[in-house]
Fold this sequence. Notes:
53% of the residues lie in helices and 10% in strands. It is an alpha+beta fold.
Amino acid sequence: MSSPLKVDIWSDIACPWCYVGKHRFEEGVRRYQQAGGGEVEVEYHSFELAPDTPVDYEGSEVDFLAQHKGMPVEQVRQLLEQMTATGAAEGITFDYAAVRHTKTLKAHEVLHVAKAHGLQVQLKERLLHAYFTEGRHVGHDDDLAELAAEVGLDAAQVRADLAEGTYRDAVQADIDQARAYGISGVPFFVIDGRYGVSGAQPAELFEQALTQAAAEVPA
């Protein structure tokens, strides 16, 4: 029996295209497997799009983008409307009025806790939904522990790992690896350590990339 095809994904939480890309990639995997493809192993890696964001940012999504990217407010509103429509087409609800901007470093630490317990993919979806749809805060230890518990992790252990910085170095290693690969934007998908796919591409492109990578796996 062949080994699973490994896909490493660099992604952030405060990243709408990462959410869209996750759903499109998963649809690509479904199509790939429906066509006879084998198992796909997914591992998420840490990336901070805006590392200078304060944990408790006071302001709306419009305020943040206008300040962070220097865009006119009306242009930001149009951008968010377009992103909301894009998300809806993928079954994602973007509620930008509810979004609470925060630094995502600790959320990435918790994703490493989840990886150690085989629950990383589930927590990734939970954090994205919490951030973009529910307006939950994903920068505080207690909020993160509660969300982690919802997918089956032990909340007390999550709090302890955050307090001790158990996975801080692992998060930094992910960020350093992204830099070594030349990744400057996310989502970024590395298939079988050999093929890079940048951005939230259509599902059919992911299906094609997986099929090609599987066909060219060395014997």
